[in-house]
What does this fold into?
Amino acid sequence: MGAVGENRYEYNLDMNLKSAYEQLGKIYYENNKDGNVEEVYREAFEHINSLYEEKQKIEIKMLARMGKRKCEHCLSIVTIESRFCNMCGGVLAELPNDLVEKKVESLPRTCMQCGAVLDEEAVFCATCGCKCG
It folds into this structure.
C-alpha cells in the first residue's frame, strides 16, 4: 500500500472511530437521559436535553406555519387540525398555544393536473377540464 492508500486508510479509520464514538455517545445518552447518570455527565446531559427541547419547539412552529404537525406516536406529518393520526390512529395531544403562533387557514383546493385553484364545489377544473371531484 502506497502513501496515498495509507492516508486514505487512516482517514477511513478516523471516520470509523468518530462514528463509533458518536454511536457510543448516543447509546449512552439514550440509556441515561432520564437522570440515571453520574454527576460528571449531568451538565452535558442537561445541555443536550435543552437542545432537544428547543429543537422540538422550533419544529412545532415550522410545521404549524405550514398547517401541519407531527404525530407523537409514529412521527408522521398530519394536518394541524387533526385530532387523530391518519397513519397510526393515535390520539394527538393538543398543541401548546405559545408554540403555535397562528393556525394556517386551509389552503384552497387545487387541480392535480394543472395546479389551478378550484371552486369549493367544483367537480371539474375550469382551466384544464380535469375531473377533480
Summary: Residues 3-32 form the longest helix (30 residues). The CA atoms of residues 111 and 125 lie 6 Å apart. The first strand starts at residue 68 and ends at 70.
